[in-house]
């Protein structure tokens, strides 16, 4: 019955691999979608239009209409002047352009700084991707651990049910007492409760995994086959790789480069600026026949070159240079501190990894011992030479040894997953 139920489960539930989990996280996760928006923002800041290398161009114009009257009374017998309804039309059109020819190189430095910001945004996306992949794989292997324990509990329940059935039969024929039957029945109930509890744990773990992958169903299985890949590695090799490939360290190195640009920009704050400008203007006015001036039109082209040099700014440039230099030192200290922190973390992980490998060997031998003991106790129990309590204890010892072996193996795999996260190779 046990084998049949496992086979049915394998048919009805599809297998979800770690590669599929990582792919779904990268494709669907909302945190990564938000991080990609930061890259889009950084790309806009590095665009040609935001670099300041293009001239500005503006166009202006206007139309006007006026209706006036004039009445003048003169002395010395001059004739009076009285003209009404004097109409006038006017218009103007102008086009202006300016271009920053020279600013001491600030524009070029700001553009290079924006490019570094774009690179940092990409690295931050990679860091988030690695972190989410790491979290997803942790949950995945916790599901694998629970699934393995579930299979052990199903096997244990089947054994308990068989013992309960056998005990009842023996009791009916007078070979056992009522206590043995009740003990067997209690063990069946305990195994059933444990089975239901771990099934619920698996469902909750799948919901946690779905939160990262945005899956909507929990009708899948995980691969309980565990392959370890760092058993022959040396920690010194991993340390060297960590310093070169860790996404957080690479980002911090780019931060150091970023503040270098702040120092250079601060040094050029008071650099002279040269601006070229040009303008063309056209003015037009047409008056009615009652006006002395019938038509007036002016046009002209103006070209110019202006310079501005802030010789003294009250010490603001000095302050900016000092602040930028402090930020640069702080960024370098943060980098070295993070390198030390990650190397320490890697060595601690490596020690735990090697310890879990050793525990696997011990538990593997323990399984063999407990299996032999269980088979012996089972045979004696069936012949009436061992009590149900001793049988149950041998059964629990075997299940515990099997569970502890797989737990050590899962722990070793989780150490590998965390090592890969530190190395920036989670996939």
Structure write-up:
The two termini are 38 Å apart. Helix 2 (18-28) packs across helix 4 (106-172), helix 4 (106-172) runs antiparallel to helix 7 (247-267) and helix 8 (316-382) packs antiparallel against helix 9. This protein has helices at residues 2-12, 18-28, 30-45, 106-172, 178-213, 235-245, 247-267, 316-382, 388-423; strands at 14-16, 56-72, 81-102, 220-222, 273-287, 295-308. Mean pLDDT is 88; it is low at 1-11. The protein is an alpha+beta fold and 427 residues long. Helix content is 65%, strand content 17%. The protein folds into two domains: 2-54 and 104-271 and 313-423, Up-down Bundle (Outer membrane efflux proteins (OEP)); 58-102 and 273-308, Single Sheet (Outer membrane efflux proteins (OEP)). The strands form two sheets. A four-stranded antiparallel sheet has the order 2-3-5-6, with no helix packed on it. The protein has a two-stranded parallel ribbon with strand order 1-4. The protein contains nine helices and six strands.
Short overview:
By secondary structure, this protein is an alpha+beta fold.
User: Which CATH architecture of the largest domain?
Assistant: Up-down Bundle
Work out the helix count: 9
- Note the overall shape: elongated
- How many E strands? 6
Q: What's the CATH class of the largest domain, please?
A: Mainly Alpha
SSE arrangement:
Blueprint: H1 2-12, E1 14-16, H2 18-28, H3 30-45, E2 56-72, E3 81-102, H4 106-172, H5 178-213, E4 220-222, H6 235-245, H7 247-267, E5 273-287, E6 295-308, H8 316-382, H9 388-423
Parallel strand pairs: 1-4
Antiparallel strand pairs: 2-3, 3-5, 5-6
């Amino acid at each position: 019955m046990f084998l049949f139920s496992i086979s049915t489960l394998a048919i009805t539930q599809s297998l979800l691999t770690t590669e599929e989990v990582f792919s779904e996280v990268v494709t669907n996760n909302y945190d990564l979608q938000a991080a990609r928006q930061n890259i889009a923002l950084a790309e806009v800041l590095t665009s040609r239009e935001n670099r300041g290398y293009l001239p500005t161009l503006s166009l202006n114009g206007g139309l006007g209409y006026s209706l006036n009257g004039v009445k003048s009374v003169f002395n010395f017998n001059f004739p009076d002047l009285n003209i009404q309804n004097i109409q006038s039309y006017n218009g103007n059109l102008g086009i202006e352009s300016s271009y920053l020819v020279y600013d001491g190189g600030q524009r070029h430095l700001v553009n290079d700084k924006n490019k570094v910001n774009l690179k940092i945004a990409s690295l931050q996306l990679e860091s988030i991707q690695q972190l989410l992949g790491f979290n997803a794989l942790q949950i995945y292997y916790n599901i694998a651990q629970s699934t393995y324990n579930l299979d052990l509990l199903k096997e244990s329940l089947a054994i308990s049910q068989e013992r309960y059935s056998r005990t009842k039969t023996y009791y009916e024929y007078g070979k056992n007492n009522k206590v043995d039957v009740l003990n067997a029945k209690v063990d069946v109930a305990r195994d059933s409760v444990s089975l239901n509890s771990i099934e619920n744990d698996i469902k909750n773990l799948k919901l946690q995994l779905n939160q990262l992958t945005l899956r909507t169903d929990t009708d899948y299985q995980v691969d309980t086959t565990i392959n370890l890949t760092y058993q022959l590695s040396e920690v010194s090799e991993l340390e060297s790789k960590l310093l070169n490939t860790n996404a957080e360290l690479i980002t911090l190195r780019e931060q150091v480069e970023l503040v270098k640009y702040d120092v250079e920009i601060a040094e050029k704050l008071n650099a002279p600026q040269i601006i070229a400008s040009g303008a063309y203007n056209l003015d037009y006015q047409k008056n009615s026949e009652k006006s002395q001036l019938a038509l007036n039109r002016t046009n002209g082209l103006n070209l110019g070159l202006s310079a501005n040099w802030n010789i003294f700014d009250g010490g603001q440039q000095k302050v900016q240079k000092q602040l930028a230099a402090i930020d640069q030192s702080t960024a370098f200290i943060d980098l070295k501190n993070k390198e030390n922190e990650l190397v320490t973390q890697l060595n601690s992980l490596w020690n735990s990894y090697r310890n879990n490998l050793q525990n696997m060997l011990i538990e593997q031998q323990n399984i063999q011992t407990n299996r032999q003991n269980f088979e012996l106790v089972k045979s004696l129990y069936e012949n009436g030479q061992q009590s149900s309590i001793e049988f149950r204890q041998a059964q629990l010892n075997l299940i515990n040894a099997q569970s502890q072996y797989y737990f050590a193996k899962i722990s070793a795999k989780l150490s590998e997953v965390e090592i890969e996260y530190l190395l920036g190779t989670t996939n």
